# Entry
Amino acid sequence: MAKYKVLNDNPFNVGIRFENEANREITIRGKSFVLMEEDDILYTDSVSKLFRNGVITIDDNELMIKMGYMEKSSNAISDDEIEALFKGTPKKIKDELEKIDAKHAIEKIVSYAKTSDLPQSKLKVVKEVFNVEIFEELDQEIV
# Structure
């Protein structure tokens, strides 16, 4: 049977337990992938929201369509896609960020925004869309 690349583009590990086969487990380490058989992928999709929420993704469009996903989840955003997103205008950034609703994706975007040298206009968009405090107050010494 063919194997497919299942990607975890998050900084955390993702564990999958197959209760139908003597409690076999697979751990997909953060920022890596594993090769899984189609049956295992379909089973995982039927018992969890990992694919639906974009926590893990598959590198094969035909299998994604077979699973009922016509396009990749907005929550399955990679570091490269985040970087490319922030090269756009604040309006375009806002439109794309409003599609994202999973905690893991929001945290990844906020973390990128905090550690990158982005203009305040783009940081303001992140703050407004996700309702997070992104601007760090600077301690000023009184001279």
In short: The two ends are 72 Å apart (CA to CA). The mean pLDDT is 90. Helices lie at 38-47, 61-66, 79-85, 90-97, 103-115, 120-130. The first helix runs from residue 38 to 47.
